[in-house]
Design a protein that fits this description.
Blueprint: H1 12-25, E1 31-36, H2 38-50, E2 53-61, E3 64-71
Antiparallel strand pairs: 1-3, 2-3
Length: about 70
């Protein structure tokens, strides 16, 4: 089983770039999983929800979220 990447230390800009690259490579029926902080989550949920992706988030710590993004 692959370890879930932890992106909590990335800037929001770097995270957005990483997500755009990884989501373009995402196969049908696959999900991109990672950990983010609250600020990152707040910044990604709106733009990706509008662009044909489904986002699921679960808070796992005070400032840590387990994010799953898949194509709708």
């Amino acid at each position: 089983m692959n370890e879930i990447p932890n992106y909590v230390d990335l800037t929001c800009t770097n995270l957005m770039l990483k997500l755009k690259i990884n989501l373009k490579k995402l196969g049908e029926g696959k999900v991109l999983e990672f950990y983010s902080n609250r600020e990152q989550f707040d910044n990604i949920k709106k733009p990706f929800s509008k662009n044909g992706y489904q986002i699921e988030a679960n808070q796992v710590d005070d400032n840590k979220y387990h994010i799953r993004i898949g194509k709708k």
